[in-house]
Specification:
Blueprint (H helix, E strand, L loop, with lengths): L2 H16 L11 H5 L3 E8 L5 E6 L8 H14 L15 E8 L3 E2 L12 E6 L2 E5 L8 H12 L9 E5 L1 E4 L1
Antiparallel strand pairs: 1-2, 1-3, 3-8, 4-7, 5-6, 5-7
Helix pairs in contact: 1-3
């Protein structure tokens, strides 16, 4: 199993069993310990591919990728306000994606956007909305509208800034 996915799974299992955060395992690959990045952990039900939880950070908040994965995996499983906390009987039906985000870059031209290749962040003042790439959105306008909805932004009345990013998706 991919080490990013294994770590997310182990963090969720540990929290289910003990309500405690998984300590960093000893045998982690160096890439998880030596680098920092924003991380999104998405949980889907294998049975119908429906979303079960998704929490992330577009900029790093922890010391390394491993700690970011652990924190966001627990949050996606137990603290996503759209869902009830994950139960033990759901664990076997869980598919996990871990997206490692590249640093967001400003968008100066709409031609720089592609909802399959790039995720999008829309900012207005202290509000922001984010959408990961390649999640079934096929046009830029829809991607922008969803980001605005998520961030509570009215683009007709508020000045917006756009940022794009790529992800390295682990399944």
């Amino acid at each position: 199993m991919d080490p990013h996915i294994q770590l997310a799974y182990d963090a969720i299992k540990e929290y289910l069993a003990s309500k405690k955060t998984l300590p960093l395992p000893d045998n982690l690959p160096n890439i998880l310990l030596a680098q920092k990045a924003g991380i999104f952990v998405s949980l889907h039900k294998k049975s119908d591919n429906s979303l079960r939880g998704c929490i992330g950070t577009f900029l790093p908040t922890q010391k390394n990728i491993a700690e970011e994965i652990i924190s966001n995996a627990v949050s996606a499983a137990f603290k996503d306000p759209r869902f009830m906390p994950l139960q033990k009987d759901e664990l076997n039906d869980l598919a996990i994606n871990v997206d490692v985000l590249a640093e967001p870059e400003p968008v100066t031209d709409m031609n720089q956007l592609d909802p399959v290749k790039y995720g999008l962040i829309v900012k207005s003042g202290n509000k922001s909305g984010l959408l990961l790439p390649d999640i079934g959105i096929d046009n830029v306008e829809e991607q922008i509208n969803i980001c605005c909805q998520k961030g509570g932004i009215n683009p007709a009345k508020e000045k917006i800034e756009l940022f794009r990013f790529t992800v390295n998706r682990h399944k």
